[in-house]
Design brief:
120 residues
């Protein structure tokens, strides 16, 4: 556990309890924590894109998950927006929103060009 994860663990636990119907019963489920997904299920994932921000409290967990996906051949892309926080790319008035849109358009174009070249 990183220092940041430890510092935010109390807050995060409260948030997970709000999300889960029964936190104690669900705390090991991959539905609440995708990083808990078994390797057997992970290999069945579709190609996956993970988007994160440099100063997001989920960055470490997302990078660990991306590493597992990469090992299983399921990671399509890991994008980390430098200098941004958790919400900076998700809301139109936030600083990273335009950057997010540009990056996603490039990823989508690359996916489409690879798909078409594979089919033809």
């Amino acid at each position: 556990m990183t220092t940041e994860e430890r510092d935010f663990s109390s807050t995060m636990r409260k948030m997970w309890k709000l999300i889960a119907a029964d936190f104690e019963e669900q705390k090991e489920t991959p539905y609440l924590f995708p990083a808990n997904t078994s390797d057997e299920l992970l290999v069945k994932f579709p190609p996956t894109i993970i988007i994160e921000s440099e100063f997001d409290i989920f960055l470490t967990e997302a990078c660990r998950f991306a590493t597992r996906l990469r090992r299983m051949g399921r990671l399509l892309e890991l994008v980390v927006f430098p200098g941004e926080d958790h919400t900076s790319y998700s809301l139109p008035w936030c600083s990273g929103f335009t950057l997010y849109q540009d990056v996603m358009q490039k990823i989508i174009k690359r996916i489409h060009s690879q798909s078409y070249s594979t089919v033809n």
